[in-house]
Design brief:
Structural class: alpha/beta
Strand content: 5-15%
Shape: elongated
Distance between the termini: 59 Å
Oligomer: single chain
Number of strands: 6
Strand order of the largest sheet: 1-3-5
Helix content: 10-25%
Largest sheet: 3 strands, parallel
Radius of gyration: 34 Å
Length: 146
């Protein structure tokens, strides 16, 4: 068997040729009576509403660019970590969510360096600012990006 021997299993049907005499589709060929929609290339553009102001014009114009890959971080400052209970030594997203420091344990968290920290903490979150990392390590703690 050759490639030229392969036949399509799809049934072919000739397209309907309208407007070729009264024997095919009657006098108006399925276009109704006269008018813009009966002419060749006739019809109005999408969204045209007969001359009144179209609905799309009543909506506010959206401008700018929305990046679909932007990552929204939940922000925690060092001053907030300093205020955690004394028995907390390991800071994870689950711990922060249970203490209501952040809303969601499954969303990314970033620690920023605003404020001072004097306790030694093991912090395991998504991201750290450079100043936050330096301050945590200077206080004897460890940082780990999860």
């Amino acid at each position: 068997m050759q490639v030229n021997d392969v036949r399509s299993t799809h049934a072919r049907q000739n397209r309907k040729r309208v407007g070729r005499g009264n024997g095919s589709q009657g006098t108006y060929s399925g276009k109704g009576n006269k008018g813009q929609k009966a002419r060749a290339g006739g019809g109005v553009r999408p969204g045209f509403e007969g001359g009144q102001n179209p609905q799309i014009k009543g909506l506010p114009m959206m401008r700018g660019f929305h990046n679909p890959f932007r990552v929204e971080y939940q922000v925690v400052n060092l001053a907030r970590l300093q205020e955690l209970p004394a028995d907390v030594t390991e800071v994870t997203p689950v711990v922060l969510a249970s203490l209501r420091v952040v809303r969601h344990a499954d969303k990314p968290i970033k620690v920023l360096g605003e404020g001072e920290i004097t306790r030694s903490l093991q912090v395991k979150v998504t991201k750290f600012s450079g100043s936050a990392r330096a301050k945590i390590e200077a206080a004897g703690g460890t940082v780990q990006e999860a």
